[in-house]
Amino acid sequence: MQVNIDKLSQKLSADPKANVTLQKMIMNEMSTAKKSTAADALLWLTRSLRLIQLFFDKLVNGEKEGGPVEDLAAKITDAYDDIIVPHQGWMAQQLFG
């Protein structure tokens, strides 16, 4: 996550007036033919934050349903499978899946 935050921060620092909001940053980036670094960083940062949210949801719901809270690895794996795996390339799925 920090890598993606750093990419967005660097983009902001490069031109603070033009990149005053994330939306403007992405729009400015899309209007150029350059690589979409900020858009990719924002996309993966959003996915990472969603992963954490889903992990906590699974913890809370598991406790409410009387399930074992100690099984953190299973809960984070489930969240990862739901959020990240659908966006990984074929090779990454073969290596880590």
What does this structure look like?
GO terms for molecular function: ceramide 1-phosphate binding; ceramide 1-phosphate transfer activity. This is Glycolipid transfer protein domain-containing protein. Residues 1-96 form the Glycolipid transfer protein domain. Keywords: Transport. Pfam families: GLTP. With 97 residues, this protein is mainly α. It has a single domain, classed as Glycolipid transfer protein, GLTP. Helix content is 72%, strand content 0%. The chain is built from five helices and no strands. The chain has helices at 2-14, 22-31, 37-64, 72-83, 90-96. The longest helix is centred in the middle third of the chain and has 28 residues, at 37-64. It is elongated and about 50 Å long. The model has no long low-confidence stretch (mean pLDDT 86).
Task: Report a brief summary of the structure.
By secondary structure, this protein is mainly α. 72% of the residues lie in helices and 0% in strands. α1 (2-14) packs antiparallel against α3, α2 (22-31) packs across α3 (37-64) and α3 (37-64) packs across α4.
Elements, N to C (H/E)? HHHHH
Which fold name fills CATH's third level, the topology? Glycolipid transfer protein, GLTP
Tally of DSSP helical segments: 5
Ends: how far apart? 21 Å
Shape, principal axes of CA atoms: elongated
Mean pLDDT: 86
- For the record, the count of structural domains works out to 1
Radius of gyration: 17 Å
Spans of at least 5 consecutive residues with low confidence: none
Largest sheet: none
Helix content: over 70%
CATH level-two architecture = Orthogonal Bundle
CATH superfamily: Glycolipid transfer protein
Quaternary organisation of the protein chains: single chain
Global structural class: mainly alpha
Strand content: under 5%
**Under the CATH scheme, which class?**
Mainly Alpha
The beta-strand count equals 0
GO molecular function, one term: ceramide 1-phosphate binding
Pfam families: GLTP
GO cellular component, one term: cytosol
Organism: Bracon brevicornis
